[in-house]
Amino acid sequence: MQAKTLGKIIIATPGAPVQVSALSGIAGECARIRFEAVMGNTNATFVGIAGLVGSTLANCIKQLAKPTAGAPPDYFELDSEDNTNILNISDYYVDAATAGEGVLVTFWQR
Fold first, then answer.
1. How many CB atoms sit inside 10 A of residue 22's CB?
2. Which of 41, 56, 63, 75 is a plausible cystine mate for 101, CB 3.0–4.6 Å?
3. Cα-flanking dihedrals φ and ψ of residue 31, to 5°?
4. What span, in angstroms and rounded, lies between the C-alpha atoms of 61 and 48?
5. Strands of 18-19's sheet in order across
6. Residues of the chain with pLDDT > 70: what percent?
7. Residues of the chain falling short of pLDDT 50
8. Residue 37: what pLDDT?
9. Contact of 20 with 8, CB cutoff 8 Å
10. CB 25, CB 5: distance < 8 Å
């Protein structure tokens, strides 16, 4: 599989989730997606689907804990069962409790 990184997706306004593909310019399918809390975040970040509201956890798949010193950052991975490109990256959104914080996003395609 070929790894591709979108880097840090910054959430400018808490409560205004960012569609992952909207910033990346990538619309398509992949076999795996990894969302990781950014070291230096001071609050939680959120991964979800359309309608994500971080403050209430509506449509939230995973709340990524704020990183702590000396510990690896929290992350969440989605994998297709048969390792094929069936996950659509544009189905996912990220949000943050604090403006200017973000999530690292990496995906793999076959």
1. 13
2. 41
3. -95, -25
4. 5
5. 18-19, 93-96, 45-53, 58-64
6. 94
7. none
8. 97
9. no
10. no
pTM over 0.90: yes
On whether the CB atoms of residues 33 and 80 are closer than 8 A, the answer is no
Q: How many domains does the chain have?
A: 1
Question: What is the CATH number for 60?
Answer: 2.60.120.770
Per-residue pLDDT at 27: 58
What is the 3-state secondary structure of the chain? Answer: CEEEEEEEEECCCCCCCEEHHHHHCCCCEECEEEEEECCCCCCCEEEEEEEEECCCCEEEEEEECCCCCCCCCCEEEEECCCCCCCEEHHHCEEEECCCCCEEEEEEEEC
Task: Give pLDDT, residue 79.
Answer: 95
**pLDDT value of position 2:** 86
Report the C-alpha gap between 88 and 12 in whole angstroms. Answer: 24
CA distance 16 to 28: 23
Domain with 9, as residue range(s), is: 2-109
